Amino acid sequence: MAETTPVVYILYGEDEYAITQFVAAIVAKLGDRSMADMNTTRLDGRTASFEELETAAVTMPFLVSRRLVILTNPLHKLASAANQPRFQALLERLPSYTALVLIEYRSLTEDSDRKKGKINWLETWAVNARGRAMLKPFPLLKGLDLAKRIQEMARTERGEIELEAAFKLAELSGEDTMVAFQEIQKLLAYTNYSRPISLKDVDYLVEDQGRGNIFAMVDAIGNGKGEEALKALHRLIEEDDPLMIFGMVVRQFRQLLLTREVLDQKGNRNDVASALRIQPWLSERYMVQARRFTMDQLEAIYHHLLELDEAMKTSEISAELALDTFIAALTHSPSPNVSR
After folding, report:
1. Average pLDDT in the 9-18 region?
2. 281-297 pLDDT, tens per residue?
3. Secondary structure string (H, E, C) spanning the chain
């Protein structure tokens, strides 16, 4: 019996690098890069309408065998059971020439719910759909497994990293594989690909992501992880004055606004680097973050920050409370009680 090619790919978990690589392999199967781009649609479940998804999913491919539709955050608008039947009906009637990739950067079913037998409805559907759907988890790697993954990243980029250095990079990147990959690219450029990356190189160039880090906080906001964003915020506050942190947050979102503008104009990493006046390798981090937001979302966020700034200047609110409420508003998480 011939093996059935999946029509729906459900990728989930916090290993963003592995998910990105898996999707890249699917894209590569479409052949020529220009044809692949022409037959690929990328949507975000937080902003795309059902009609946009449906139109993309049933459109015939052009001069290739399959059309690829990539939908991130598919469950954002499907928390209500009332919205699920329509989405499920679309999954079940997708044509064979479509490959619909659904990406959630988190678990579909929390461990506590799984122990109680409460399985997420999309996961249940995929299991019952059998060959029509592929359900693939991408959990975060740790320890030796993560260090080996980092060595694999270096080889993929035509370089090498010593195992001891890979362990250190895993620690400093906060076990975030996309951050580790970006650091690998920077480290290989530093060594000019002429020798393996050493522990000394990592200590010299890599910032500790496990400590307060503005990128980690904004990543968490972009993924709707309120608790994680608040933890990142308070790690920052432990190291610097809240007013200084607020200024960093304002600057970060101003940079993301500029980056989003360049991306919307089909610019590349060099264009982003020029607009932000930074090195091209660093622009990759801003591009990854900017893709988590629409321009409208970033403009609304920046406007909200300016309102908070005005409130702080008139002593209506403290900087720490302003930051707490800012994150709570964006992620719909309760703001913790903070002593002032």
Report:
1. 93
2. 667 778 888 888 899 99
3. CCCCCCCEEEEECCCHHHHHHHHHHHHHCCCCHHHHHHCEEEEECCCCCHHHHHHHHHCCCCCCCCEEEEEECCCCCCCCHHHHHHHHHHHHCCCCCEEEEEEECCCCCCHHHHHCCCCCHHHHHHHHHHHHEEEEECCCCCHHHHHHHHHHHHHHCCCCECHHHHHHHHHHCCCCHHHHHHHHHHHHHHHCCCCCECHHHHHHHCCCCCCCCHHHHHHHHHCCCHHHHHHHHHHHHHHCCHHHHHHHHHHHHHHHHHHHHHHHCCCCHHHHHHHHCCCHHHHHHHHHHHCCCCHHHHHHHHHHHHHHHHHHHCCCCCHHHHHHHHHHHHHCCCCCCCCC
pLDDT value for 213: 66
Note if the pTM is more than 0.90.
Answer: no
pLDDT score for 339 = 32
The CATH architecture that domain 214-331 belongs to is Up-down Bundle (1.20)
In CATH terms, 8-137 corresponds, of 3.40.50.300, 1.20.120.450, 3.40.50.2000, 3.40.1790.10, to 3.40.50.300
Q: Averaged over 161-184, what is the pLDDT? A: 89
* Domain 143-205 class in CATH: mainly alpha
